[in-house]
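SAMPLE LOG
Freezer: B-3
Tube label: C17
Construct: single chain, 179 aa
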Amino acid sequence: MTRLTRLTRLTPDTAVGASRDLLAELVSRHGQVGDMVSTMAHSPAVLGGYLQLSRAMGRAKLDRAVSERISIAVQVLQGCGLCLDAHVSAARRLGVDELEIERARTGTSADPAIAAIITLALQVYREPTSITDEQVTALREHGYSDRAIADVVGVVALNILTGAFNLLAGLTPGSGADA
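STRUCTURE (predicted):
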C-alpha cells in the first residue's frame, strides 16, 4: 500500500525563486532529482543548505564505509526508513558485509576503531555533552585524525537534516520516494 506524502514534489516549472533555479540546475546536471530534493524545494534555505552540506561532506576525510555505518546507526534511532534503506544500500555497494550492517544497526562494529567512532556519532546525536577528552584521545589512538573526528559531526548533522525532513514530509520507502 502506497502512503501519501505530506508535502508535494516540486519541479523547475512549479518551484519559485531560488528553488526553481536550484532544481533547474540539478535537473540539467543529473536529468532528474529524487523526491526528497524536489520536496525540499518548498524551502530554498533548506534545499540550499542540504546541497551545500552534502557537497561538503563528500569531501570528508572519514572513510565512506565508516560514514555509512554511522548513518545506519543514526537512522535507526531517528526512525527514517527511507534514509536507513539508502544507507544500508550504500554500505552494501561499498562492500560492508551483512553482519557489520546489522552491528551498525545496533550502534557498534566488530572493529574496535569503527565501534568507537560510531559510539562518538551516537553521542553527538543524543548527548554531545557526554563526550570526554579520553574518548577523543582513544579515537586518535585508533588512527583517526582530528579532521575525521570533526567530520563525524557533519555526518550526524546531514543525517538529522535528511531524516527529519523525510519524516516531516512523509517520505517513506512505501511512498515511492527516494532519498
